[in-house]
């Protein structure tokens, strides 16, 4: 990036453009290599990584299982997006957009593919009749906030997060532009949560799961090492809501699944049985190999 950049008449791809994800970003879709996806025995097959979008689904599934929905049992397979796993022929067959998470429901005939995290949350909520309000007005409010998250988070992730944490250099204009927008969004949430326990009122729902994965974690200091920069502690209502959700055992389990960074006890690379949380996190695996 230069101070006086003049865009050409026709943009061309410079694959040496730099940045954290330069090795996998490209302007074309489709598979780069042939590789089938692994398939387990459970009704639901999840292919993901513990990014905020991926975490939404593992939290949702753990919540459903805790509620007694046994048909929500799932195999969670790790997709390493930094290695380009999302461009395998198998993954592209589920999600032509090559983004995690992606889900296959094996309980239907034919099997059902679901992609986009918001769509997966809605699919699971409607399939199991859980974590989505049944009252017309409250359900609509839940969906209002679910789609608010889907439309707003790119400003936090691809906008602020990219230029603050991942771009090859720090540039004042884009950081200021997206920091302003993220703080506006936090203010929207803070004012709403002043009079609402959860996003759709009193009821914990898929709207809370979706928003917490991005903005709750930001408020808890887990996003981009930007908590001080964005002064997240000043949003008192967001803080209270974020801590309340973070304390849920189902959320704690969901955060671990497909996680490959951070504390070893928080990393469960793949999840195929509920006992995996006790026996197969990376700290346990390291002890086995000592």
In percent, how helical is the residue content? 40-55%
Task: State the CATH class of one domain.
Answer: Mainly Alpha
Beta-strand proportion: 5-15%
Using only CA atoms, what is the Rg? 20 Å
Number of strands: 4
- Briefly note the structural class of the backbone: alpha+beta
CATH architecture of one domain: Up-down Bundle
**The biggest beta sheet, please?**
4 strands, mixed
Q: How far apart are the termini?
A: 47 Å
Contiguous uncertain segments of 5+ residues: none
Strand line-up across the major sheet: 2-1-3-4
| SSE arrangement, N to C | EHEHEEHHHHHHHHH
Question: What multimeric state do the chains show?
Answer: single chain
Number of helices: 11
CA-based shape: globular
**CATH topology tier name of one domain:** Glutathione S-transferase Yfyf (Class Pi), Chain A, domain 2
Mean pLDDT: 96
Structure commentary:
The mean pLDDT is 96. With 290 residues, the chain is an alpha+beta fold. A four-stranded mixed beta sheet has the order 2-1-3-4, covered by helices on one side. It starts with 43 loop residues before the first strand and ends with a helix. It is 47% helix and 6% strand. It has a domain at 136-252: Up-down Bundle (Glutathione S-transferase Yfyf (Class Pi), Chain A, domain 2). Helix 1 links the parallel strand 1 (44-48) and strand 2 (74-78). Helix 4 (136-166) packs parallel to helix 6 (206-219) and helix 6 (206-219) packs across helix 8 (236-246).
In short:
The chain is α+β, with helices and mostly antiparallel strands and about 290 residues long. It has 11 helices and 4 strands, in the order βαβαββααααααααα. It has helices spanning about 50-65, 90-95, 115-130, 135-165, 170-195, 205-220, 225-230, 235-245, 250-255, 275-280, 280-290; strands spanning about 45-50, 75-80, 100-105, 110-115.
């Amino acid at each position: 990036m230069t101070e006086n950049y003049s865009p050409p008449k026709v943009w061309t791809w410079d694959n040496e453009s730099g940045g954290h994800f330069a090795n996998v970003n490209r302007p074309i879709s489709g598979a780069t290599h042939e590789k089938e996806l692994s398939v387990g025995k459970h009704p639901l097959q999840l292919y993901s990584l513990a990014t905020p979008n991926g975490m939404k689904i593992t939290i949702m599934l753990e919540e459903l299982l805790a509620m007694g929905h046994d048909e929500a049992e799932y195999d969670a397979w790790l997709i390493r997006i930094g290695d380009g796993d999302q461009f395998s022929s198998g993954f592209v067959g589920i999600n032509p957009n090559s983004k995690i998470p992606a889900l296959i429901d094996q309980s239907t005939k034919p099997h059902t593919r679901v992609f986009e995290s918001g769509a997966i949350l809605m699919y699971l909520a409607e399939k199991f009749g859980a974590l989505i309000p049944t009252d017309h007005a409250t359900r609509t409010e839940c969906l209002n906030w679910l789609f608010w998250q889907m439309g707003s988070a790119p400003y936090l992730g691809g906008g602020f997060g990219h230029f603050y944490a991942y771009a090859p250099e720090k540039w004042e204009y884009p950081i200021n532009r997206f920091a302003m927008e993220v703080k506006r969004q936090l203010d929207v949430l803070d004012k709403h949560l002043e009079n609402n326990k959860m996003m759709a009122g009193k009821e914990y729902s898929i709207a809370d799961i979706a928003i917490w994965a991005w903005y709750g974690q930001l408020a808890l200091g887990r996003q981009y090492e930007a908590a001080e920069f964005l002064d997240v502690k000043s949003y008192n209502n967001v803080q209270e809501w974020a801590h309340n959700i973070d304390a849920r055992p189902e959320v704690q389990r969901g955060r671990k699944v497909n996680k490959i960074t951070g504390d070893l006890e928080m990393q469960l690379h793949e999840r195929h049985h509920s006992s995996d949380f006790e026996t197969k996190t990376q700290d346990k695996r390291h002890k086995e190999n000592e």
